[in-house]
Amino acid sequence: MIQAAIPNLGQALVAMAKIGNTVIAGSGSDGYRSTDLGLTWELMDTTLFGHGLYCVLAVNNDFIAGTNSDMLISYDTGRTWVPFDDGLPQGYTQDAFQQSMIEFKGYVFAVGSNLGLFSPAPFGFQ
């Protein structure tokens, strides 16, 4: 059971994505990273995720994460994260990216409770 390997998991996992041997998992409060397909886990920098990691998407060699305050991208398999919300309308931050994300033809689409459907600038792959 994978939850047994995640330290101090206080609630159920709500998101998971994999690139190679790296797995990113999210709960309503934290984000976790494993580089050995889930055998061991580390708690990621929670200051980046603010109020939890609610959805995560693996696209090519990048992870895109949705929180309830921002959309983030990691270009280095989850070691570091930067904002990924070019073009986000002003005022759409609280509870914005909790629902789901998909990639289609070079665009990432995010669905959230306040936002409806949002796509930042093209991701750069087609």
Structural features, described:
This protein is mostly beta strands and 126 residues long. The protein is 3% helix and 39% strand. The strands form three sheets. It has a four-stranded antiparallel β-sheet with strand order 1-2-3-4, with no helix packed on it. Strands 5-6-7-8 form a four-stranded antiparallel β-sheet, with no helix packed on it. A hairpin with a 2-residue loop joins strand 1 and strand 2 (22-27). The radius of gyration is 14 Å and the shape is globular. The mean pLDDT is 74.
Give a nutshell description of this structure.
Helices cover 3% and strands 39% of the residues. The chain is mainly β.
List its salient traits.
about 130 residues, mainly beta, four-stranded antiparallel beta sheet, 11 strands, about 5% helix, globular
Could you tell me the number of beta strands? Answer: 11
Instruction: Quickly give the structural class.
Output: mainly beta
Tell me, rounded to a whole number, the average pLDDT.
74
Estimate the global geometry from the Cα principal axes. Answer: globular
Q: Biggest sheet: strands side by side, in what order? A: 1-2-3-4
Helix-strand pattern: EEEEHEEEEEEE
Biggest sheet record: 4 strands, antiparallel
Task: Write the topology of this structure.
Blueprint: E1 13-19, E2 22-27, E3 31-34, E4 42-43, H1 46-49, E5 55-59, E6 62-66, E7 71-74, E8 82-83, E9 100-104, E10 107-112, E11 116-118
Antiparallel strand pairs: 1-2, 2-3, 3-4, 5-6, 6-7, 7-8, 9-10, 10-11
